[in-house]
Amino acid sequence: MKMCETIDATNAVNHKETKTILVVDDDKRLATMLALILEEVFGTREGKTVNIPILHDGSHLETFLLGHIGTIDLVILDWQMPGRGGWDTYLQLRKEPGHEKTPVLFFSGSFNEIVIDAYRNNIADPYIDFVSKGSPDNILNILDITKKMLGGL
């Protein structure tokens, strides 16, 4: 079993900028589907490319970040995972050099709009947001928030 899979849309001949979106979710099929959608939507456009590594366990974050100091542009992070959950993974990310302000989008089936509003109003980190896996518009919400967090990719 691989610790990290990668969907890489860096097939452009002359790309000017690569954005890296790290997906951390223990549901392998969902993580892969999300990465493929992100690749399809944000793939190669206007000289920009997107690289989408996938981790299936938050406990592998430190090892992964050793080779990616300051190069992760966004983390899409499942809230509930076995081992190290989303919140603990987020706290570890914030301790890593170069990732103190990396945008994080929490994506979980345990959220509903009331919970999401409570988190948005009580967590003093302007670099995070939340999307419910159960929302019928969840993919559209992820794409919209991703675009905003990456500065209009």
Characteristic key phrases:
single chain; 153 residues; alpha/beta; six-stranded mixed β-sheet; 24% strand; 5 helices; Rossmann fold
Characterize the structure shown.
The chain has 153 residues and is an alpha/beta fold. It has one domain (6-10, 18-138): 3-Layer(aba) Sandwich (Rossmann fold). 35% of the residues lie in helices and 24% in strands. It is built from five helices and six strands; from the N terminus they run E-E-H-E-H-E-H-E-H-E-H. The protein has helices spanning 28-42, 61-66, 86-95, 113-122, 138-149, and strands spanning 4-8, 17-24, 48-55, 74-78, 104-108, 128-132. It has a six-stranded mixed sheet with strand order 1-3-2-4-5-6, with helices on both faces.
Brief sketch in words of this structure:
This protein is 35% helix and 24% strand. With 153 residues, the protein is of the alpha/beta class. The chain has a single domain (6-10, 18-138), classed as Response regulator (Rossmann fold, 3-Layer(aba) Sandwich).
